[in-house]
Amino acid sequence: MKLSIVIVSYNVRHYLDLCLQSVAKALEGIDGTEVFVVDNASSDDTMRVLPQRYPWVKFIANDQNLGFARANNLAIRKAKGEYVLLLNPDTTVAEYTLREAVSFMDAHPQAGGAGVKMHNEDGTVAPESRRAIPTPWVSALKMLGFTRRYYMSHLPWDEACRIEVISGAFCLLRHKALDEIGLLDEDFFMYGEDIDLSYRLLKGGWQNWYLPLPITHYKGKSTNKSEYRYVHVFYQAMLIFFRKHYSHLSFIYTLPVKAAIYFRAFIALIDLLRQKLHL
Question: How far apart are CA 21 and CA 231, in angstroms?
Answer without folding.
Answer: 32
